[in-house]
Amino acid sequence: MRKIIYLLSIAFILFSCTKEVVIDIPGYKEQIVIDGRIETGQPPFVLISKSKDIYSPTDLNAFLNSFQSGAIVTVSNGTTSVQLTEICTDNLPPGSESFIAELLGVSVADLASVQICGYTSFDPLIAGEIGKTYNLTVNFEGETFTASTQIVQPTPFDAVFWKPDGNLTTHGYSWATLSDPAGQFDAYLWEVKRINLGADGLPKDDGFQKPFGPVFDDQFFDGLTFDFFFDNPSAYDDSISDKFRGLYPLGDTLVIKFSKMDRDVYEFMEKKELQLATAGNPFATPTNIPNNITGDALGVWAGFSPSYDTLICQP
Coil, strand or helix: which one is 272? Predict the structure, then answer.
């Protein structure tokens, strides 16, 4: 009887300590979203859209309708200032289709089925150059937004190679040897594109793809030389055997695009990739993505300095 009374008392105390928690969720506020980039040897490219309420429709039409036109967008490198031209996917300058398709992450054939307007300039005086800082100004709906980014000195690989994984003989990861510069902040982005032909006679990949965790900095390997590997982001569909998931088969040929960025761009990219990797996980830590846009806007103005290597998957 004493044990029962004791347990009932403990239960009464525990339940009497409960407290109703009321969470005040802020109301939705529409914001301008600026997604711009410039890299070595390439023209600037800027997309402008508006943010959407989490409860708003998420179909393709809603996505396409979020993009905005009519902005005045200017890019300066300190000596040259150029106002970008608004171009749309249904009226592209001849010869620009591949460039625009890769920036948008779609195939050239799919450009005709989407209606997106962006801002760019093919003036060679404003193309990306290593060591220069690029300032972005966007005037839209009576507001002005600015950002700055730098194209830093790239760090090419010492070597790239493929080797079979474990006991396999026909499948493996893509590997690289990197010598990180000492005594400075360095951040990297790994992208890859398979260029050998598939069964349809076309290159296996239309554009560059990112593997899992493609963005990293040198916090733990500053000044070191080391080997590391990445998986095949295209090798995860149901047609691939579990033991070959994420691996490159013997004979694949790929181009590795290894880019560097400044600290602000890294902070944006790293948090964005983290959020994408944990989307839908109720136990993941909420992530706020920083941005380098001044004014009440979201997004990033990103400078990249890529180096390229071709890797043939053979021992």
Answer: helix
